[in-house]
Design brief:
With 131 residues, the protein is mainly β. 0% of the residues lie in helices and 47% in strands. The strands form 2 sheets. Strands 2, 4, 5, 6, 9, 10 and 11 form a 7-stranded mixed beta sheet that branches. Strand 5 and strand 6 form a beta hairpin.
Amino acid sequence: QVQLVESGGGLVQAGGSLRLSCAASGLPFSVYAMGWFRQAPGKEREFVAAINWNGGSTYYADSVKGRFTISRDNAKNTVYLQMNSLKPEDTAVYYCAAAQRAQIINGGGYYFTNRREYDYWGQGTQVTVSS
């Protein structure tokens, strides 16, 4: 069966960095688009970043643009989220997600940022940023 396993979360001070990893199995990873979402206590799960099947296209939420970088290694079936200049408002459970499509944008220029547009999910990893 499909498994997405996140790692790399933890406690960090504001201004610090963390690198999240998501190891995938049971799916054709190299042809699937991947995404990261996050959910803070009492809030909806929100889009963070997405990457297409070969890493040639990425997209970010405005709140993390310029600070976070999504990447993937298809040989290792792993997607990463490098998070720099972390802020207390980045505190959340971070989830890895896989979509049964290769691209992160459709022909009309719409980016797939809705959680319902992703088919498989990991269990999440906690990121806590202290001020």
